[in-house]
């Protein structure tokens, strides 16, 4: 029967290729089995397209428009069953449409997919139609667009639909509905938020009703969230392109269908698991019947639109060799090959072929429908099978792939053909309309019932940290957390962590809207804003409000407002009223990187209150419940107050405000620590935030620090001391010394080789000279014949001419972007005993510290930045 099937499907010519391929690719083509393992008594759907331009293969490109594609179905997944083009009634014969992302309803009665068209020949991208979501029902042979309104359908690109068990659809979209609302709250015009490389609009997760109404955004990342699906426990799992500063990878995330409880699921530290430890991305996740996750792994680009199939034990592992807390001691690997083919996840020839898409069956057979291309090589102008000799020939190149649909039997480890590979065609996005039981339904949180109505009304969530001194489950506090928490043992100034800072990214518009010059970013390749500050309690705990529907990071600060923790490794999000709880903080060890963005990975180091009642030697009015942190106990107490004091301990500020609310003088044996505040209102130069935010924080408050208007004025602010008669006895204005001319207008070397005056830099005319000299290496200068010139010293001899080689003398910058604490060459001068002690106020030093810590950007508002 198999010989009959192969002849029917492939023909004699393809048989020769199959036989030859098996020598170099570890490929088994199925032999006789009964019943026929390639036959499924359920409909099958797939996309057939003209082979696209392989140079466009980039896993990040979600808006890609590759025309001449249609959706086909067969009533049975059987090679002999005729296929039907179900989108032809829409696409016609123009070949100007694209189709992707096929998925099946849980009852198997219909499929959903994304379709885009018709393409406008030679039209600009912004003039082209958007991706829309469509549904096809098998029994009635009907096809409809989910969103019926043309106006609403074209509001954004909609892709990767997947049914939720409650009948709604989760999908990825550039609509960014809630994110755009946040832009308005920030006083910015609405625009399509771009990926951090500014290549295209960000696709984020949304949900909608089955009729296209009730669209809501549920994820708030800074780059694409793609390929959502639902696991049996009702959670949504998807692939996130994580581009937090210092990161660039696609790994798996999960959340409830309303976007709450977002967590890393797998793979942040497991990208170097491809061929020869090459980097791969995790895309197209599907749950298997045994609960494991199968994903397509592939490099970013140059992979013929395909990769390998891997099976991941996400219940046991968060990384390939990092187990969850309940499975400590297990070392993995979490990933296992799905087919055993020698699939290469690097550019070039892949002996085992490559996979473009897959769809596991839920009938207990272990079968997987796959879109697979066998290995084909080009050698000496001929298409050759991938024998070992050909694969190892350095002159061999990959030939065009021929993706078609196969059934892979994981038991027999064999491929059974379902349709003929076609030259110049690509058959992908396979799905089998097999009914399966509904996953659990996780209901959306209801304000006033599941989440606090007041928090929802404020547009905030809550961050709850047990102790910032809990590092990966280890108590890292000097003398222990319990000692720091006891006012009798430790004063506030003896505690390393004093404040927490919440930082958000600044979204950048499309270049067609605002073509910002790269000089706007300065020392960093991103922009950032500060959301708020909150106090860290003596035990290291934090319970603070944070704006909802906004990606954010956290930074732990010392008394001077300088970050003492490593930069946070990923963006977090909170939905309105949600409480995000975590044990503590984390330090990334490059030699043994561990992931932390998922619950139950590390034991908690701080047990909290030993029993009911006050913490040791603290005020008797604040009674903890057993296991409470100090922040939790204080929040419970203040939330019982009235008026503006209600929940005041959870209310952050745009300033650093400290008050010792814990020390009980009667039992601690000492007076409470002195209160202090460092306020932006105390600046004599422009403030980075609104006046109303300085009086009372709200979810719309932002600290926006642009160098030219907020930082640079510090250098020319008069700092003059007068005697009783009004005569100047001291001039500590920064530019009085740090300028290239003295009071008599004579040329001089600026003090410390640092010029803080106005004027464009010679290196970057769109940036002030002072900015460049503070943050970038410069050349030492001297006065020569009445002019400033670079100092040149001999650093060698030219081997040909024998003449001396002269080089400038470098001057190291006194500031370090993203590292105020490490900018000792600057701040050390203003410390007690330093040469500039007292020259800058506490508010001014704090402004500089926060600006440096978030990246020392030249501009942090794209709408005031220079454009091309």
Structural summary, described in words:
- With 868 residues, this protein is an alpha+beta fold.
- Helices cover 13% and strands 26% of the residues.
- The strands form 16 sheets. A four-stranded antiparallel beta sheet has the order 3-2-1-29. Strands 4-5-6-7 form a four-stranded antiparallel beta sheet, with no helix packed on it.
- The protein is globular and about 105 Å long.
Keywords:
alpha+beta, 868 residues, four-stranded antiparallel sheet, disordered N terminus
What's the arrangement of strands in the largest beta sheet? 3-2-1-29
Distance between the termini: 67 Å
What is the makeup of the main sheet?
Answer: 4 strands, antiparallel
Structural class: alpha+beta
Based on CA atoms alone, the radius of gyration comes out at 31 Å
Count up the helices. Answer: 17
Tell me what portion of residues adopts beta-strand conformation: 25-35%
Uncertain stretches: 1-24, 31-35
Shape: globular
- Fraction of helical residues: 10-25%
| Average residue pLDDT | 93
How many extended strands?
47
Please write out the topology.
Elements lengths: L1 H8 L1 H15 L18 E7 L18 E6 L9 E2 L2 H4 L6 E7 L5 E7 L15 E6 L4 E4 L4 H4 L4 E6 L5 E5 L3 H9 L18 E5 L7 E2 L7 E6 L5 E7 L6 E7 L7 E4 L14 E7 L5 E6 L9 E5 L4 E3 L2 E2 L11 E3 L16 E7 L6 E7 L2 E4 L2 E4 L2 H4 L5 E2 L5 E6 L4 E4 L7 E8 L20 H6 L1 E6 L4 E2 L2 E2 L5 H5 L13 E7 L22 E8 L6 E6 L5 E5 L21 E4 L47 H9 L17 E3 L6 H4 L7 E3 L12 H5 L11 H5 L1 H4 L3 E3 L5 E4 L2 H4 L31 H7 L2 E2 L1 E4 L2 E4 L1 E6 L6 E5 L1 E2 L12 H4 L14 H13 L14
Parallel strand pairs: 30-37
Antiparallel strand pairs: 1-2, 1-29, 2-3, 4-5, 5-6, 6-7, 8-9, 9-10, 10-11, 12-13, 13-14, 14-15, 16-17, 17-18, 18-21, 19-20, 22-23, 23-27, 24-25, 24-26, 27-28, 30-35, 31-32, 33-34, 33-36, 38-39, 40-41, 42-47, 43-44, 45-46
């Amino acid at each position: 029967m198999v010989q009959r099937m192969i002849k029917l499907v492939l023909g004699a010519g393809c048989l020769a290729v199959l036989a030859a391929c098996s020598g170099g690719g570890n490929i088994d083509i199925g032999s006789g089995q009964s019943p026929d393992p390639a036959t499924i008594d359920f409909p099958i759907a797939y996309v057939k397209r003209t082979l696209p331009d392989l140079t466009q293969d980039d896993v990040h490109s979600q808006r890609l428009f590759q025309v001449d594609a249609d959706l086909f179905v067969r009533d049975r997944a059987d090679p002999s069953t005729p296929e039907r083009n179900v989108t032809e009634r829409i696409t016609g014969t123009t070949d100007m449409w694209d189709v992707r992302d096929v998925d099946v309803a849980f009852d198997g009665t219909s499929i959903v997919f994304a379709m885009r068209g018709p393409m406008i020949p030679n039209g600009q991208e912004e003039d082209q139609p958007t991706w829309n979501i469509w549904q096809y029902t098998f029994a009635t042979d009907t096809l409809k667009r989910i969103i019926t309104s043309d106006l609403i359908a074209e509001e954004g690109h909609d892709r990767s639909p997947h049914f939720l068990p409650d009948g709604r659809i989760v999908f990825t979209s550039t609509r960014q509905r809630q994110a755009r609302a946040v832009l308005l709250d920030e006083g910015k015009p609405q625009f399509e938020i771009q990926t951090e490389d500014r290549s295209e609009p960000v696709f984020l997760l949304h949900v909608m009703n089955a009729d296209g109404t009730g669209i809501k955004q549920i994820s708030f990342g800074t780059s694409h969230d793609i390929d959502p699906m639902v696991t049996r426990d009702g959670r949504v799992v998807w692939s996130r392109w994580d581009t937090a500063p210092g990161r660039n990878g696609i790994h798996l995330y999960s959340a409830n269908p309303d976007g709450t409880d977002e967590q890393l699921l797998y793979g942040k530290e497991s990208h170097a698991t491809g061929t020869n430890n090459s980097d791969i991305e995790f895309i197209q996740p599907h749950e298997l019947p045994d609960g494991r996750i199968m994903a397509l792994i592939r490099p970013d680009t140059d992979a013929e639109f395909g990769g390998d199939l891997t099976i991941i034990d996400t219940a046991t592992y968060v990384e390939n060799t990092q187990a969850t807390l309940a499975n400590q001691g297990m070392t993995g690997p979490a990933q296992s090959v799905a087919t055993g083919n020698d699939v290469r996840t690097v550019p070039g020839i892949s002996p085992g072929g490559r996979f473009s898409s897959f769809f596991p069956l839920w009938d207990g057979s272990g079968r997987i429908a796959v879109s697979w291309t066998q290995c084909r090589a080009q050698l000496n102008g001929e298409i050759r099978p991938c024998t070992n000799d050909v694969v190892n020939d350095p002159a061999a190149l990959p030939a065009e792939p021929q993706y078609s649909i196969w059934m892979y039997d994981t038991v027999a480890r064999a491929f059974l053909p379902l349709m003929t590979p076609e030259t110049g065609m690509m058959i992908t996005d396979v799905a089998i309309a097999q009914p399966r039981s509904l996953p659990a339904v996780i209901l959306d949180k209801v304000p006033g019932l599941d989440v606090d109505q007041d928090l929802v009304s404020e547009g905030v969530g809550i961050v709850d940290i047990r102790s910032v001194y809990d590092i990966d489950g280890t108590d890292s506090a000097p003398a222990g957390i319990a000692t720091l928490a006891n006012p009798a043992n430790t004063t506030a100034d003896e505690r390393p962590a004093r404040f927490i800072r919440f930082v958000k990214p600044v979204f950048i518009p499309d270049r067609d809207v605002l073509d910002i010059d790269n000089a706007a970013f300065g020392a960093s390749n991103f922009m950032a804003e500060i959301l708020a500050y909150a106090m860290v309690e003596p035990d290291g705990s934090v319970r603070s409000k944070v704006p909802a529907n906004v990606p954010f990071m956290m930074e732990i600060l010392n008394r001077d407002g300088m970050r003492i923790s490593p930069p946070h490794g990923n963006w977090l999000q909170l939905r309105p009223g949600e409480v995000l709880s975590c044990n503590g903080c984390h330090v990334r060890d490059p030699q043994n990187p561990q992931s932390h963005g998922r619950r139950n990975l590390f034991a908690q180091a701080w047990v909290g209150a030993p029993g009911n009642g006050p913490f040791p030697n603290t005020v008797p009015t604040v009674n903890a419940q057993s296991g409470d942190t100090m922040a939790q106990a204080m929040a419970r107490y203040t939330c019982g107050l009235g008026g503006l004091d209600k929940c005041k301990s959870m209310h952050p500020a745009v300033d650093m405000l400290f008050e010792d609310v814990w020390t009980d003088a009667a039992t601690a044996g000492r007076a409470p620590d002195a209160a202090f505040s460092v306020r932006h209102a105390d600046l004599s130069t422009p403030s980075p935030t609104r006046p109303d935010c300085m009086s009372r924080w709200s979810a719309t408050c932002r600290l926006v620090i642009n160098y030219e208007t907020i930082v640079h004025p510090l250098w020319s602010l008069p700092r003059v001391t007068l005697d009783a008669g009004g005569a100047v006895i001291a001039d500590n204005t920064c530019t009085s010394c740090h300028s290239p001319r003295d009071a008599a207008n004579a040329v001089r070397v600026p003090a410390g080789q640092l010029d803080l005056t106005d004027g464009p830099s010679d290196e970057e005319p769109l940036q002030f000279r002072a900015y460049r000299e503070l943050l970038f290496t410069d050349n030492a200068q001297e006065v020569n014949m009445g002019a400033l010139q670079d100092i040149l010293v001999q650093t060698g001899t030219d081997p040909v001419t024998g003449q001396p080689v002269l080089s400038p003398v470098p001057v190291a910058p006194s500031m370090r972007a993203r590292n105020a604490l490490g900018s000792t060459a600057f701040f050390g001068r203003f410390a007690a005993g330093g040469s500039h002690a007292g020259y800058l106020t506490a508010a001014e030093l704090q402004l500089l510290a926060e600006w440096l810590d978030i990246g020392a950007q030249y501009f942090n508002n794209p709408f005031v930045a220079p454009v091309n």
